[in-house]
Amino acid sequence: MSTTRSPVKLEMVDAPNQPPASPELAELYRGLEAESLVPLWTEIGDLMPGAPDSSAVAHLWRWKHLLALAEQTGDLVPVGRGGERRVLALANPGLGGRPFATPTLWAAIQYLKPFEDAPVHRHTQHAFRFVVEGEGVWTVVNGDPVAMRRGDFLPQAGWNWHGHHNVSSEPMAWIDGLDIPFARYVESTFFEFGPDEIAERESPDRSRSERLWAHPGLRPLTHLGPAPATPLLAYRWEATDRALREQLALEAEGYTATVEPGHAAIRYTNPTDGGDVMRTLRAEFHRLAGDTRTATRREVGSSVFQVFEGTGTVSVGDQRWEVERGDLFVVPSWQPFSAETADGLDLFRFSDAPIIERLGMDRVETEGTTT
Amino acid sequence: MSTTRSPVKLEMVDAPNQPPASPELAELYRGLEAESLVPLWTEIGDLMPGAPDSSAVAHLWRWKHLLALAEQTGDLVPVGRGGERRVLALANPGLGGRPFATPTLWAAIQYLKPFEDAPVHRHTQHAFRFVVEGEGVWTVVNGDPVAMRRGDFLPQAGWNWHGHHNVSSEPMAWIDGLDIPFARYVESTFFEFGPDEIAERESPDRSRSERLWAHPGLRPLTHLGPAPATPLLAYRWEATDRALREQLALEAEGYTATVEPGHAAIRYTNPTDGGDVMRTLRAEFHRLAGDTRTATRREVGSSVFQVFEGTGTVSVGDQRWEVERGDLFVVPSWQPFSAETADGLDLFRFSDAPIIERLGMDRVETEGTTT
Amino acid sequence: MSTTRSPVKLEMVDAPNQPPASPELAELYRGLEAESLVPLWTEIGDLMPGAPDSSAVAHLWRWKHLLALAEQTGDLVPVGRGGERRVLALANPGLGGRPFATPTLWAAIQYLKPFEDAPVHRHTQHAFRFVVEGEGVWTVVNGDPVAMRRGDFLPQAGWNWHGHHNVSSEPMAWIDGLDIPFARYVESTFFEFGPDEIAERESPDRSRSERLWAHPGLRPLTHLGPAPATPLLAYRWEATDRALREQLALEAEGYTATVEPGHAAIRYTNPTDGGDVMRTLRAEFHRLAGDTRTATRREVGSSVFQVFEGTGTVSVGDQRWEVERGDLFVVPSWQPFSAETADGLDLFRFSDAPIIERLGMDRVETEGTTT
Amino acid sequence: MSTTRSPVKLEMVDAPNQPPASPELAELYRGLEAESLVPLWTEIGDLMPGAPDSSAVAHLWRWKHLLALAEQTGDLVPVGRGGERRVLALANPGLGGRPFATPTLWAAIQYLKPFEDAPVHRHTQHAFRFVVEGEGVWTVVNGDPVAMRRGDFLPQAGWNWHGHHNVSSEPMAWIDGLDIPFARYVESTFFEFGPDEIAERESPDRSRSERLWAHPGLRPLTHLGPAPATPLLAYRWEATDRALREQLALEAEGYTATVEPGHAAIRYTNPTDGGDVMRTLRAEFHRLAGDTRTATRREVGSSVFQVFEGTGTVSVGDQRWEVERGDLFVVPSWQPFSAETADGLDLFRFSDAPIIERLGMDRVETEGTTT
User: Fold this and answer.
1) Please, what sign has the CA dihedral across residues A264, A269, A273, A277?
2) Which chain B residues are Cβ-neighbours of A15 within 8 angstroms?
């Protein structure tokens, strides 16, 4: 038997549905502790609530504060083999100081100074970059250099080699989203170091992946097999912006094209199957036209939003914030979310919805309508 | 902004790959704490290990101890509305005293005294029962009474109403397996109380679900649509035993029918799609013939085993135990497992493999061969 | 250009929607003939009817006549390499004398005299055997001898080696169903001769495939990969009969278990995915209790039925027949079908529904309700 | 029993594997004829060849002849309700004068004079248009006007309302591809007339479907459900041409991007699942750079090609043709195909491959390598 000492500690409680305290019960609890056993009756309220009662809390991080701190790290923290990345992760105050934006999601600001490299490695965790401002960095994925520019969404599925290099004389910051907390929780993570140097130092306008894949509905005959993650490494702002403008224009012409009045939205998808870009991460972009208010909605699963442009008011649970460019906030599982704006609001969103949906745990409630 | 105080606490550390301590770094860390941010460089070793380094530990629970404690609870703990079940959960010593056999799996012994009822409820968590000895209890699932007898595997997918009643003058104990830790982690859980009384008090030999579904390869025309969980509520011992005997007999006749020499095994599957019985739980039964040793194998994802019959030696990580009927043990993610037996060993196993596989995180290594 | 002469022959027709006859039109038609072109306007009524207008006709074949003729062939026609099988195929009178029960389906009686062999071959066409009476023949599929007995359904997916041998002193007849017409139409057929002798001459009660697979919901761990066709080579009468009896019993107890009152039915399915046994063929067994009449129903796609037991009246299109054991009839695409019986009627059915459904062409109408 | 007279006619033949002629055999054959039965032994060579032996033949249609005949029909044949379309279909000389390019595929030239309409209807057959030259026609699909221009591929899945109108002062011709022969064969066809007038007479540069869907990897949140056919109604030449140019450029830079040296190719796909645009039809575009020769390849299933640009030599079975812009040719099932070009050759191709693959009948052989 394991020599590990049992950390179980049980106490008799005078409460409804609890067995009456007695010397015999105390002795039983000592026996359970010794055998590493825990009764259901002391735990059921926590384990089996009537509806999800998230430990993560609704929280907002101001971009200006993040960016200022990231700039400070530039002076104090080297980037290189071992530390690997100069990254500050959102730590949800409900999650005990761990660097987890939500129980499943990692969200962080990454910062690279002029002409710096972040060294090559690979890991099974899925990742993406999203750029709220700036440019000058190329992320090199399996040898394919991918430019990063404002508005671009840059997915990077697990186990691909990648490093970043800044070819410009300006620093650059962006956000990273990963499934680190989830992968750690299910204990599935593998990691390997790559070469210390990034070999491919070109800075082409378009990556090879885009040249092969960024043609709507056209699939190269060399790549007909299944691809569990998207082979397209950059979803450019120009396309996203155009798609959203067209939805609002179609709405104005009288056609169904928006999620609700004034609310355009696209999901980034894997062109090989039309599903999410990665098996654990969903990414979307939402545009609210001026004078728009979304329906209040709650969902099983958690999300992180970043304001890309505009201003507005967002409500999450019992929190309510005025937001502006770059601000990040989380929507924990089953907490109601809504947003409104006078002048227009562009929101990037990512979530753990593919986990929830693939395992059949999805539930959505929109202003009282449960599905 | 949330008024929650940040629980982040950062300390400067004199270690490789850590930035040098300085008053500026200290000030930066105070700033990060104030903004609920955590650097990657202090966490990367924990978050991104080279291979899964499970927090759960290999551990064994002896059936005779479990059963003795369960019998004690029979005298001290009532079963009824509120507490819902008389259940003792395995608490992995590596998981801080929480009632989690592994990070994702719940495993427990449930105990019902003569003529007792466990009241009707439903929850989104998936569950099953497995009976290592005894009989006399019927679990009533959506009004369909299902007998529970030694060797039976009784799946019960989420959100189905269920209660149990003991129709005999003997107590009965069995094990429950659920995805409670996982569902709690992803914050997806819903729960509802049913009627206080179990209405259907019949004790038929076979449930209606078996009468409709337990015919190999034959599907009722009334049930052609997709079923995310198995509609078959009982997988009877007679069938399991026969399937295993046939595999060993075929092996003896010279045909490929066993996983490896002397090792027969079946997976319990959903007859509507041939996949796992539930979206988060896999269940299997393994039979080792006398004088058999399995190959050492490790997998991403965690498992719980119960010895059904026989004796043998099992190795998990650096643990090694002699086991006998009813003993339960866990195999944490990526820890090597093997078993050997002189006289034969029957093992029931359940795991979180459907979660791991549906999300593309599966990796298996068998005596040096990684796939 | 091909030197093949054009078989196109066009005539000017004085009819609505046809261009007026003229010397110029005549000259145009000669030009089209020369270039192997055909106008849509002369063909549209045939090619694009408002609803399917089957060329196959409703037709009945009497078992007693089939069997008598099959017995005659036993005396006159050897079975051996080259001819391969002693088989008489149903030739739908609407299909020009070709051996096609419907445009897609082959249905035939096969006859094997005492101690005869039908030699080993394989073909890409999918096949099954169904036994309305008799026994004594084993079909050997990839070396696995499979007994054939009354009521058994014996699927045999394409490209498996197979031969038959009669180990008894009685002749035996059964029906074969295949997708020969479909495979020929899409020009996908491959065929190979096997050894002249059947090597495996055992006559076990159960095949190895049954020993591995005929356990409800239990899947051997050696066979977890996808299987496009069922690995179970025999669906025994005892199981089919029991499943149908249970459905009627459950109906009598007040539960939903039958397709409609008095009408029990099962579909034979692939245990690895819950779908049809083969990619082009569906097989079902329907039991009508006494004093039952089915709703009239029509479907896109064609079927062949064989009466297994009992008597009744079946209606197909404008045909109406009294039927009895062994009688075979076809239901062409979109022709209404119903059946009624005073004393009970057991019907085996096979169809091309998997083709229709996989290609999204399915449509069903039940007594006026279209889906 | 059906009153239809049997069309079966059997003759005794003095040949290997045929039963010896005798009065008894003659009498048996008369009996089989009377009962509408056909022996396998007289048919097996035709029904079960060693490999597909297509009845369709390799054949070429010259665009200049097609176009000249289409222009003649413009003067002689009205287009309107009843005839529905002014269309000339390729009639494969091996298929008895029927308007079938191959057993499964319809290919035709359609011709619309200045300011003409082709009236609105819908049918379950899947269709597309491909434009080798010209412009000025809009096809209106469920009220969405879609411009047709050189190089565009315009899919139109079954059961959508559609009509065409020519808004220009020039006639326009294009090719239509459909699954008419297949749908007729399986007897699945439904057809309905729409309004006599096309209501939507706008001529926008881009259809609403493109405005919603032609953004690579971006899916509108309003359309997340499964779509069995592509919702994108136009695949524009500019995108196709760019994708092919990029493949050849990547090849020149040393990356794998082409099917074989000098041979770029894309498949038109459904952005909702990455599969074929329609359930029965595949469409691709192939570009051969100058001085390129493809490997010889044969496949189960049939194809139609149209030369879009350039010149070259194509070989199909034992045919060999010099081809130029607009020429159409068929590749029957399992006939070897290759192409070569000195100056470059652009080929549009469509086929029945989705039928073949969905039913598991696909087989490919490339210069001796079978897969």
Assistant:
1) negative
2) none
